[in-house]
TrEMBL record:
It comes from Gossypium aridum (American cotton). This is GTP 3',8-cyclase. Pathway: Cofactor biosynthesis; molybdopterin biosynthesis. Keywords: 4Fe-4S, GTP-binding, Iron, Iron-sulfur, Lyase, Metal-binding, Molybdenum cofactor biosynthesis, Nucleotide-binding, S-adenosyl-L-methionine. Pfam families: Mob_synth_C, Radical_SAM. GO terms for biological process: Mo-molybdopterin cofactor biosynthetic process. Gene3D superfamilies: Aldolase class I. Its EC number is 4.1.99.22. InterPro entries: Aldolase_TIM, Elp3/MiaA/NifB-like_rSAM, MoaA, MoaA-like, MoaA_NifB_PqqE_Fe-S-bd_CS, MoaA_twitch, MoCo_biosynth_MoaA/MoaC, rSAM.
Length: 276
């Protein structure tokens, strides 16, 4: 069992498969871009599997594949197939922007991918293009529907809420849960050096919750797991659910069970921590 100096048991490993991405989201990447690690210094397929096996034998039972954008990695199907066969691993998840996901989903599910998070910050194509500096809104919607069609339940949709950009769409996102097994996850905007720590864009959980509760008065809190990073809610009559990830206003550091393996092989215990 992996236990840190604060007594936290680490059972959840996030593996960055690549630093590359096919979008250029403004809150994620600075306008001038970023310098990528040279390919020879990135983890190979075999190195990923070897390290993952070490973590699983040490008590990790959940692995999430991230990036960059994990689906741009050509061997993602093989990686999923090999990871899902690790004895003791209960959950294999991926967080993706959904641009190239739809056509890969059937094989990914067959290869053992159990959970899925798709990032989508707006339901308006023109705003999507502005924020991501790329086209492709329809491809993300297609991927969400494809995920439902192949049986993922719930399909988690991650939405970073930003004042003046998509705060007027909060209830529109909630409407996605009316008749579909979607868990909409509203995430507080997390300022960092790359987006100039623009705290003015931050909309706190309390404000988002108030917006949803006024429109949907039957909103009810669900029970949360101690290591859960989201506060989960259900609206009477809705198939799906709504969650809030309170990264900034109500941090969940005390119950954090995550480790992060970067694409270059470095390990981080905190997203904001400087040490590797």
């Amino acid at each position: 069992m992996l236990i840190d100096g604060f007594g936290r048991k680490h059972t959840y490993l996030r593996i960055s498969l690549t630093e590359r991405c096919n979008l250029r989201c403004q809150y994620c990447m600075p306008a001038e871009g970023v310098d990528l690690t040279p390919s020879p210094k990135l983890l190979t397929h075999n190195e990923i599997l070897r390290l993952a096996n070490l973590f699983v034998t040490s008590g990790v039972d959940k692995i999430r594949l991230t990036g960059g954008e994990p689906t741009v990695r050509k061997d993602i199907h093989d990686i999923c197939s090999n990871l899902s066969s690790l004895k003791g691993l209960k959950t294999l998840a991926v967080t993706t922007n959904g641009i190239t996901l739809a056509k890969k989903l059937p094989m990914l599910k067959q290869c053992g991918l159990t959970n899925l998070n798709i990032s989508l910050d707006t339901l308006v194509p023109s705003k999507f293009e502005f924020m991501t500096r790329r086209k492709g809104h329809h491809k993300v919607i297609e991927s969400i529907n494809a995920a439902i069609d192949v049986g993922y339940n719930p399909v988690k949709v991650n939405c970073v809420v930003m004042r003046g950009f998509n705060d007027d769409e909060i209830c529109d996102f909630v409407n996605l849960t009316v008749d579909k097994p979607i868990n909409v996850r509203f995430i507080e905007f997390m300022p960092f050096d790359g987006n100039v720590w623009n705290v003015k864009k931050l909309i706190p959980y309390s404000e988002m919750l108030d917006t949803v509760a006024k429109k949907f008065p039957t909103l009810k809190r669900l029970c949360d797991h101690p290591t859960e990073t989201a506060k989960n809610f259900q609206i009477d009559g809705h198939v799906g659910t709504v969650s809030f990830v309170t990264s900034m206003t109500e941090h969940f550091c005390a119950g954090c069970n995550r480790l992060r393996l970067l694409a270059d092989g470095n390990l981080k215990v905190c997203l904001f921590g400087p040490s590797e």
